[in-house]
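Preliminary data (for renewal application), XIL complex.
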Amino acid sequence: MNSDLTRRRRLARTALPAAALLLIGSAVAVQSSAPAAAAETTLRAAAANAGLFFGVAASPNRLYPIVGQEFGQLTPENDMKPDRIATSSGGLQNTSGADTLVNHAQSNNMLVRGHTLVWHSQAGALQGASQATLNTFIGNAINRWGSRIAYWDVVNEALEDNNTGRRRNQWPHTMNRDANGDGDFFDPGDTDVIRDSFIRAKQVVQAGGYTTKLCINDYDVDGLTVQGGVRNRKADALYDIVSNYRQYIDCVGFQAHFNDNPNSIITDDLQANIQRFADLGVEVHITELDIDDDLSNNDIGAGQAENYRKVVRACLNVERCTGITVWGISDSESWRSSERGLLFTGGNGNYQKKAAYHAVLDELNKGRNTTTPPPSEPPVDPTTPPPSEPPVDPTTPPPSEPPVDPTTPAPTTPNPTTGCSATVSALDAWTGGFVVTVRVTATTAPISGWSVQLTLPSGSSVTNAWNADRSGNSGTVQFSNVSYNGSVNAGQYTEFGFQGVGTATGLNPVCTPA
Ligand code: XIL
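Predicted structure:
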């Protein structure tokens, strides 16, 4: 924490006078469209009545009864991060803490948010890994818990600090390539770790028939503006990402760690920002909420309880804002204990409710207020290219073709004289689109490069590919190895994938070693 921040922290708190609080309270009550009902006495029940979950970040050593009583959703605070569970080749290890949390959630009927698959921080053995290894990890992690995880944070904190609106310049984002130099990573020839990770995650979810939804999560993306009314470029960048990759992204997480950093304050356009993401058709969640108790330079007014009320109200007022998670139970056990940013004091299972708790409970009990149109929706930036493909409708019936069981050997096209074979090892298809995984096997001897040719049915085309360079989009398309997957030992294989529109029957891939 810098000294400027510390100094600002010492500023006296301006508590709203009681009369003003009453006024705000009654104004909200008048707006509320929910029928009068007996007030619920837990956050969990009050939220459920309003049609959202209220959750908490948890660790296996703190699974006190309060967790299942007050909260309807659980996010492992640290136990599902790559530094805990990933091996350097994308396998799983040390999953016992995560398993304990998932089991606890299940036996208490709580939803689980998996946190997190692709992240520059707490990457552990995955630090520096290739996309292929990330994809392996994504598959292993999603498959381990399947539908027991309601939401996965697939990519966490992809965007740079200081409101630049840029991607981070750290691994894994260093894998990104802007092929046509137009300043973004959204084009078919570009490489984008966000896109490729989501494509892989979507493929795994579809192949497994899981109900899991796939989220992108970040901080300082909460309002349309930051301090001083400056445009929130980080939020805009996230909006562009979700718009472009809407077909793979189901949900957006605003971490909502609110503090005195100029980019981390609560602004009065929080609701409008939630609304514009919701209007893309994704669920919006407040995923890691904590509010510095002397947050003083926000646009809304000081007072922690009042600030909590504002955040909860902003979510309640947007129907597709379907969950709020606080980042811990009590101040003393928080990752930022000095900010006293949570809803309880105390520790070790003996917790006392703060004013902020009562404010949140009260606000949840008022229910949603979605009958009036949301205020001031910002126009969509006309410079943002429209999504290249229509979003996948979540109500669309499941893939019309059953996924190929990867354990079933698919017909191969071995060519003993060339030394490699190519097979379709997974195919996920739905009305109008597909994702294909192709396995390249070195049949008799090591190979140091490969190319695979296959033919798409007429009218079908490839929209993007990963773990391979490609030439052509339709008809006969050629894929060749990238720098990290050309060498394959005898009897071993590597995989690449692509997504397309149309159908993907009779591809008949043929492999040629380079
Ligand atoms: C934090 C945990 O709360 C700490 O215990 C750990 O030491 C560091 O990570 N954004 C995230 C969370 O996505 O995973 C972080 O959690 C907080 C910021």
